[in-house]
Amino acid sequence: MIKSSRPLSRLTTPTFEMEFFSPETRPFDRNKAIHELLLGRKLANQLKAALIKSTGDDDARELVTGIFNSFSNTLSMLNSAESDEVSRFPASTHLGSPCFDGRKSEDSVESCKPSRLKSRRGCYKRRRTSQSRTIDSPALVDDGHAWRKYGQKVILKSKYSRNYFRCTHKYEQGCQAIKHVQRIDDEPPLYRTTYYGHHTCKPLLKPSEVVLDVIESESSKLLSFTNHFPTKNGGHGSFLHQHQSLSPDFLLPSELSAYDHGDVISGVASSCTTSSHSFGMDIMVEMESVKFEDDVLQFPEFS
DNA sequence: CAGATTTGACCTCA
DNA sequence: TGAGGTCAAATCTG
């Protein structure tokens, strides 16, 4: 049988890629952006210190503090693609629905529906007042997770359609994380990503491994771990904000120079803690704040 | 051919 | 009742 050609409507409908990856809005270099933000924050902090010393002007100090916090918040957004601030579905959602069984079982859905049309009745519930976390960004940010698009919808009074994504591992591992992405502005381009649920899927690498990425510049060095790693209390480590309060006792010796972009470090981050920002996300930590002992990453401030 | 995307239909809820 | 969220068949892609 000859396959029917693609309907005209599909040809005329802008694809997600066309809509989101126009030349002026192609994905940006996330690491560079993070580095620039860190640099900005550092400079704001220096300015604040200088102001305190010289003028003591409260207004100026407040302004600089605001700038500093703004940098921190943006960094936090970039790093916590998935945080535990991210929503939970209501207990009844999906898990409580008659058809939820972690699916992949397209068959299992089948099992709970006598006929195709009736089948969907009651098989899913709309999220209601579940918490969510929204990030606005000038470009699409790769949050390090594998997403699969499952829908697209024209939104009333909105120029751009909303795109719906679920975790690729939804059916294999029952991961309930989803996100909605919508372009909300033209000039400058602005994308709103709303995350619901959190990733419960396992990382791609072995739990004892993290991929190290070294971001380097004249003023500072950063380590970026592009995978999860386990913590003492069974969670996953994260280093949002905390590295601001590091003890200088742990200034990094030469060990780190032995590691380079993309290195895989075997071992366990033995002493990091989970915080309100603590799972399933990329981890950025200032180079000076970690050290290696017997190839084990040490995060002293959490010991 | 398996996995991803598209898109119309269906469903829930305000 | 209709806007928005999800499903799933059809289609595409690597």
From TrEMBL:
Q: Carries keyword Protein biosynthesis? A: no
Q: Mind listing the GO molecular function terms for this protein?
A: DNA-binding transcription factor activity; sequence-specific DNA binding
Query: Entry's SMART domains?
Result: WRKY (SM00774)
Q: Give the location in the cell.
A: Nucleus
Question: Which domain of life does the protein's organism represent?
Answer: Eukaryota
Q: Does the keyword DNA-binding apply?
A: yes
Transmembrane spans: none
Which cellular components does GO assign to this protein?
nucleus
The name of this protein is WRKY domain-containing protein
